[in-house]
Amino acid sequence: MKKTAIYIGLLLTGLLLGWLLFGGNSTHEDNHEHNTETKANQMWTCSMHPQIMKTEPGDCPICGMDLIPAEAGAEGLAADEFKLTENAMKLANIQTTIIGSTDGSENTLKLSGNIVANEKKNAVQVSYFSGRIEELFINFTGEQIKKGQKLATIYSPELFAAQQELLTAKSLKVSQPQLYKAVRNKLKLWKLSDEQINSIEQTGKVIENFPVYATISGTVSEKMVEVGQTVKAGQGLFKIADLNSLWAEFDVYENQISQIKTNQVIEIRTNALPGKVIATKVSFIDPIVNSKTRTVTMRADIRNSNAEFKPGMFVSGTLTLETASETVMVPSSAILWTGKRSLAYVKTKADQPVFEMRTIQIGKKIGDAYEVINGLQSGEEVVSNGAFTVDAAAQLQGKKSMMNQTDETSLKMGMSNQRMKVSAKFQKQLKSVFDAYINLKDALIKGDFKTAKQYSNAMKTHLSKVDMKLLKGDSHNDWMTISKTLAGFTKQFENASEIKGQRSVFKPLSEQLILAIEKYGINQEVYAQFCPMADNDKGGYWLSLEDKILNPYFGDQMLGCGEVAKTIQ
Q1: What is the DSSP letter of 193?
Q2: What is the mean predicted confidence (pLDDT) over 216-240?
Q3: Which CATH number fits the domain 245-322, given the four candidates 3.30.565.10, 3.30.460.10, 2.40.30.170, 3.40.50.12280?
Q4: In 10 A of CB 197, how many CB atoms?
Q5: In terms of Cα–Cα distance, which of 388, 345, 558, 414 is closest to 478?
Q6: pLDDT confidence of 299, banded at 50, 70, 90?
Q7: Alpha-carbon distance 198 to 550, whole Å?
Q8: Which ranges constitute the DSSP H helices of 82-203?
Q9: Reduced to 3 states, what is the DSSP secondary structure of residue 480?
Q10: What DSSP designation does 254 have?
Q11: What CATH number is given for 123-241 in this structure?
């Protein structure tokens, strides 16, 4: 037994020494490499504010607590990347599109317009002598007439006298041929034909009510006289339009003018003729821009021998446009404009809702998309719906966004605290929006769904009354973005069917209003408060007029959960 114990002891000692000499070294090397890699990718966060992610240790910019190491691989995001939850993606209806390059083939530009009469083919049927209209044989517009058709009869005293002169001159034809010829020419100037003049001579009778015959064929577009009306020589009786040839007129915006040229092929369609496509060419581009609509008129000729198209019809036109080879196109809905920059949000991970803001340079607009000069590449996935909401999330998380640059010294709660100088009148209008928000917040604290919805409507009403003309430059551009985003969230708030849905929208709504108060001020001290447990422990901010915590995200369940994150002077 004693020997057995000694052998077992020696065996265990050998195994221990082997592990120390071989296995221990291997593990040490592996751990060293792992620790080096971990240290390189280590992120630091706040235990109270988990949305804060930094690459170095330090203090939380919200509460001042020491940052702690984030779990290895918990985020793994680049400095400018940020992540949204699947729930937030669905709530804001965020959609993405994979952009691609053209192969140099044709793209399309769609325009809206209407059919009008061809002015070149319009004419007015006039009376060539004065008199009183005795009969009308055309009684309504839209009636078809043919050249030579009787339109009316007119009693004309001067024409009556001229006929008597003709009969007298006929008797003097041999002795005074010049007089006879002059009388006949006078009647011809009144558009009497040789047949009519010869008939008067042969019958020897003067016609009292003289007929008026159509000199052109077409459709009556306007009846200009009535029976019994006195007309003068040259006065219009009917407006006649030749509808065998029509124009399709389209409004073209300034940024589209350079893409259109005369003789360019255009396909024309109308809902009145399903499946019917007319291929024609651009015949005219107005050289003058309409100062009110900022458009020019583009025209194309349409042959209409079958009378299928009618003036007044709405039509759509599709132009084929050639683009340069390998041109990257991005949907217009994906672009955010700041006045100085054009931005887009790119989904950087195919299997996760991770995004990054990208500054881009765009070219001309083609249809519903823009050419990308630089900033995006073919195959990248961009946010094509809900870009404002994604931008709001970037602001809250302190990432590059439409409203701020990633300057850690000027960020608090993930947004710029730089105050813009605006008028007291604008601040007063903004305060009306804020007052409605406070009432909404109080309703959520009480769990009052109906009252919260009522004050959401009030917020939207006050937003619509804010006069953007009071702002200029960057302050104007920023407010356009903030107000659109706020309006969108108030609409989502109205559509919520329960208090839980309202509280979900309350978070991004509050974030945008905090940004607005930070930038413009309302001449009142306001507290920005934060609950780390809101939104499934992702945290949520709200505004209050008092520093006492009354939590709108949980109400009676956790009324005192939260802290004052910042005081906005």
Answers
A1: -
A2: 88
A3: 2.40.30.170
A4: 17
A5: 388
A6: very high
A7: 106
A8: 86-91, 157-171, 177-189, 194-203
A9: helix
A10: G
A11: 2.40.50.100
